[in-house]
Amino acid sequence: MGAATMASNLFTHTRMLAPPTNSCATCSNRTPASFSLRANLLSPFVGGSVASDFSGQKIRPSSLSSASFPGSHAKRTGVTMVIPFTRGSALDQPPPDLPSYLFKNRIVYLGMSLVPSVTELILAEFLYLQYDDDQKPIYLYINSTGTTKGGEKLGYETEAFAVYDVMGVTRYVKPPIFTLCVGNAWGEAALLLAAGAKGNRSALPSSTIMIKQPIARFQGQATDIDLARKEVNNVKIELVNLYAKHMGKTPEQIEADIRRPKYFSPSEAVEYGIIDKVLYNERSSEDRGVVADLKKAQLI
Asked: What is the rounded distance in angstroms from the CA atom of residue 139 to the CA atom of residue 102?
């Protein structure tokens, strides 16, 4: 029984490998391209044709080589299998998970207001990157309105203090943290921007930076409101002291400046001590942000 099965499989395999016969007159008139698989076949891994260069290992079984088909004049009659692997440039690979790709390059992106879920994620990323390598710097990109947005209170200032205590002077995480403002850094987000490693606090030319005092709204009985008012005042004192420490100003000057929200263009933020430099491209060397344009037009 087993011998009969083996013989049957061998006979089937032999028929598959048998050269094609010219049983019709029209077969001899076919062009080699009709037998080729290299025309306009797209590879899902590289976005190009099978014939083009791609990142992967080519495997061609000997049974699929062109020598097995002596009656065919095609240059390539076999099927090339692609085993993808991560190597080479981004063009040689499938599109990655972009947040994970940034995280792999030690980039932490703060792109929302500071609420508990955002704080939890940032702290977890800081701690993981420290355990991964405690010598390489961490890059914190900031595009946040702090704990408020449009005048609405979204989070507590303690969310910013939690991130600050991990990355600031206390250096709970060992790697230096380079900060970059890529849109706006308002309120408590400006504190995180200023708390970066000295010499590596920067902003892009069109960004806007603003410092202000805490915002709070109370309701309840008189005693509760009085207690909340005292707590907000303590938060304000702490915020002023931290601003003064990282911006090289006195607490009295900071307190006077934040009586109303104070906006800065990137170059003004350098002069004030919030950041150390503005990152320009090769084609421009001046601020192009909203604040800079309004001041050039003498509107503010």
From this structure: 10
Give the span between the Cα atoms of 236 and 242, in whole angstroms.
10
Residues with Cβ within 8 Å of residue 292, at least 6 apart in sequence: 265, 266, 267, 286
Helix %, strand %, coil % of the chain (to 5): 40, 15, 45
Per-residue pLDDT reduced to its tens digit, 161-191? 999 999 866 668 889 999 999 999 999 999 9
The DSSP bridge partners found for residue 152 are 149
Helix axes 157-167, 116-132, angle to 10 degrees: 10
Q: Looking at residues 84-91, what average pLDDT do you find?
A: 56
pLDDT for 17-74, tens place per residue?
A: 444 544 444 444 444 444 444 434 343 444 444 444 444 444 444 544 555 555 555 4
102 phi/psi in degrees, rounded to 5: -65, -45
> Which among 31, 55, 51 is positioned nearest to 40, based on CA atoms?
51
pTM for this one?
0.63
